[in-house]
Specification:
heterodimer, A: 494 residues, alpha+beta, Neuraminidase, 3 domains, four-stranded antiparallel β-sheet, 31 strands, B: 209 residues, mainly alpha, 8 helices, 77% helix
Chain lengths: 494, 209
């Protein structure tokens, strides 16, 4: 008995230590690296990014940041950080090795000097024009990189813009044509859009209200209740935009309301139409995730969005501190980050930027920028996803196989392999991988091809079988007609 | 006339939905074994329909498999129908015995059971564009079963059509009441179990100390 117990204990110790080593081997991160399988369950996965370093203002040599709230990387790789509490914009090189210029004083067109007051957004266009959301000064400054203000955009005088509302720019960006888009904290009807000459031209990209049962019910009851009661009821207005990024001709927006489920991430074309609207996409965690170490339930609230050079969509969830990375087809690639004190964790993540194969996350509580670098696994996945999305399915096959070698649970890779095999004409293989990936559409196509192939190759056998069956039936009938005894018995029985 | 084996009776009823049950009643035919077999096949068909569909139509969550819902949807529902129909129609001057209600209702379910299997097989042969064939089969067979069930109730109790509809509606009501009571009973049993178990735990701790 004792012997049995001892061996059992030994086995248990072995199992536990094996489990621990498995976890620590996959991580080296202060958080669980996970992904979603084909049923939408969270499962452990390989890390696509690891935290490399955290850079503070002191490291840059410009004194520590004070609740910085935006980071932007310009086309030539210069980083701009909106250091809100210190009323300045800090520029640095792409490696965040040393600071470049620090912008705190600007020269107005008439020659006078002006200072920033709690700037919370910065954007630099491809022709080196800097746009600053100067929040507490209620203006957007348009300046060159030497600090000479070209234009000042202030609260628009327009029938469309409610004059009782303050004008507090939070985030700003400009498109190629020079139109300026401004996210305002108190406006839920979308971003304010200004023409290149600074004239207000309306709102852009408002969120929709999800037609939930509750909303429909409220709408119904609203017809019967008095105005007084109406004013007391919860209003069904969609949340406003909390962050955005521009990628070529498309503007991506995100909304950080945790109660909102539609339009949390939008891809808007020049007309303001959401291209993701008709696709059933979900961003962030599928279900709110309970973290026992913090005794908290995380409901995804995406505070900032960034489009990488290769088209990947990075979403920063400020409740759980996670960065959700999607490829341009909105397939989930990686989940990185957490709320933690260690490197790789954040206190209050505020903004996200990417350059090359690095991710930069600005923390407005730690006052640092955390730099994540791509792992080997991440680079293979990115390569494969890029090839796949560009239509080079067959070229993507080898990288996808490599991904599966490293992580057999990586669902995206099964989809990639299935598409590639389908393109190649290997229908059986495509069916196998599509089934593993829960990709019904690809399976359907592969099966259609396989069925046709099978029918073609077995056509003579099938034709012979049908012919034999017809012959056998007619022979049976003739036999029955020639033997009236059995036919009579049959008739009798009916 | 009409010297059919028990299996031939099933065929006869399927092909003569309107007067088939009257014939069978007149001949006092019908086998309880075949009825139970049909209900068992219904259960298997539901499992097949839920789990074995072709991946081009539906991929199920096969990490876990719980058989209880399938049993509930086939065997328990059927039993509730038989008991409910018997209790309602006893009050409504029906002629049917419990045995006959069970047999007739089960025979009426043959097309429904068949379409479960046929659709499962077809789902491995068709592609998504051809889904309409499966839908046609489904609706035809379900309609066929509904028709059969109507005439089964009508002939087993010797009702007029209007009274049959009334009896069916009452039966469904009786089924709902029975299932709700069953659920209440189950939760009560569970609570009693939890109570007894906690009592046992408490006592066992005290004895040990």
């Amino acid at each position: 008995m004792l012997k049995y117990l001892l061996s059992f204990a030994a086995a248990a110790v072995c199992a536990v230590s094996a489990m621990c080593s498995a976890i620590s081997a996959s991580a080296g991160e202060p958080y669980d690296v996970y992904n979603y399988d084909r049923w939408g369950d969270a499962i452990p996965s390989q890390a696509g990014y690891i935290a490399d370093r955290a850079v503070s203002g002191t490291d840059l040599g410009v004194g520590s940041f004070d609740s910085p709230s935006d980071i932007f990387c310009s086309h030539d790789g210069t980083m701009f950080i909106a250091d809100t509490g210190n009323n300045r914009i800090v520029s640095a090189d792409a490696q965040l090795g040393s600071a470049g210029r620090v912008y705190s004083e600007f020269t107005m067109p008439d020659g006078s000097d002006t200072a920033l007051n709690k700037p919370s957004g910065v954007f630099v266009s491809d022709d080196d024009v800097m746009y600053i959301a100067d929040t507490e000064n209620s203006r957007v400054l348009v300046s060159d990189l030497d600090g000479n203000v070209i234009r000042e955009i202030t609260k628009p005088v327009s029938n469309v813009f409610d004059q009782n509302k303050t004008f507090m720019p939070q985030k700003v960006l400009a498109d190629k044509a020079g139109n300026v888009y401004v996210v305002l904290g108190n406006i839920t009807t979308g971003a304010a859009m200004f023409a290149p000459d600074g004239e207000f031209s309306g709102f852009y990209g408002a969120n929709r209200n999800a037609p939930t049962a509750e909303v429909i019910r409220d709408h119904f009851f609203r017809a019967f209740i008095s105005d007084k009661k109406k004013a007391r009821r919860i209003r069904n207005i969609p949340s406003g935009i909390s962050g955005f990024d521009i990628d070529g001709d498309f503007i991506f927006t995100c909304s950080s309301s945790s109660s909102q489920t539609t339009d949390t991430v939008k891809k808007l074309n020049a007309a303001g139409k959401n291209i993701f609207a008709d696709r059933e996409l979900s961003f962030g965690d599928y279900t709110p995730i309970y973290d026992p170490t913090q005794n908290k339930v995380f409901q995804t609230a995406i505070i900032d969005i960034d489009i990488a050079d290769d088209g990947c969509i990075n979403c920063l969830d400020h409740t759980s501190g996670r960065i959700f990375q999607y490829d341009e087809e909105c397939e989930l690639l990686f989940i990185t980050g957490t709320i933690a004190k260690q490197l790789g964790g954040f206190d209050r993540p505020a903004a996200l930027e990417s350059y090359g194969n690095e991710l930069f996350v600005l923390d407005s509580q730690k006052d640092t920028v955390t730099v994540f670098t791509e792992t080997d696994f991440g680079s293979i996945v990115h390569k494969a996803a890029k090839l796949h999305n560009d239509g080079y399915y067959e070229e993507a096959l080898d990288p996808w196989y490599e991904v599966l070698k490293r992580d057999g649970n990586y669902r995206r890779a099964y989809v990639g392999v299935a598409s590639a095999l389908l393109r190649k004409g290997d229908y059986r293989g495509a069916m196998k991988y599509a089934k593993l990936a829960d990709a019904g559409k690809i399976y359907n196509k592969a099966f259609e091809g396989y069925r046709l192939q099978w029918l073609r190759s077995h056509f003579s056998a099938i034709a012979a079988l049908i012919f034999a069956a017809v012959f056998a039936l007619s022979a049976l009938r003739r036999y029955r007609n020639n033997h009236p005894h059995s036919a009579a018995r049959k008739e009798d029985s009916l | 006339m009409m010297e059919l084996s028990q299996v031939q009776w099933v065929r006869h009823i399927l092909l003569h939905p309107v007067e088939g049950f009257e014939d069978m009643r007149w001949k006092k035919a019908g086998s309880l074994n075949i009825a139970f077999f049909i209900v068992f096949m219904l259960f298997l068909g539901m499992v097949a329909d839920g789990r074995l569909f072709g991946p081009q139509f539906f991929i199920n969550y096969d990490k876990t498999f719980n058989i209880i819902p399938y049993i509930l949807r086939s065997i328990v529902f059927f039993a509730a129908w038989v008991v409910g129909n018997w209790s309602v129609c006893t009050l409504l001057d029906g002629d049917g015995t419990m045995r006959n209600i069970c047999i007739y209702s089960a025979y009426a379910l043959v097309p429904y059971t068949a379409q479960l299997f046929i659709r499962t097989i077809l789902s491995h042969l068709l592609v998504r564009d051809e889904l309409v064939f499966m839908d046609i089969i489904r609706f035809t067979f379900i309609g066929w079963s509904a028709l059969l069930l109507f005439f089964a109730v009508k002939s087993v109790h010797q009702y007029s059509p209007a009274k049959t509809i009334l009896a069916c509606a009452f039966t469904i009501g009786a089924m709902v009441i029975m299932l709700v009571l069953l659920m209440l009973f189950m939760s009560l049993v569970q609570q009693v179990y939890v109570f007894v178990y906690s009592l046992y735990t408490e006592i066992s701790y005290r004895i040990r100390v």
